[in-house]
Amino acid sequence: MTSSNTKSKLTSEAAPKTELVAAATAEPASTALEEIIVERRGSVGLITLNRPKSLNALNLQLAKEVMQTLKSFDADDRIGAVVITGSPRAFAAGADIEEMAEKTLVELLGNDIFAEWDQMRFVKKPVIAAVSGFALGGGFELALMCDFIIATEDAQFGLPEIKLGILPGIGGSQRLTKSIGKALAMDLILTGRTIGVDEAKSAGIVARVVPTGDLLQTALEAAYQIAGLNAPAVAMAKEAVNYSLETGLSAGVLHERRLFQAAFATEGQKEGMAAFIAKRAPVFRNC
Question: Which residues are designated catalytic?
Answer without folding.
Answer: 95, 138, 141, 161
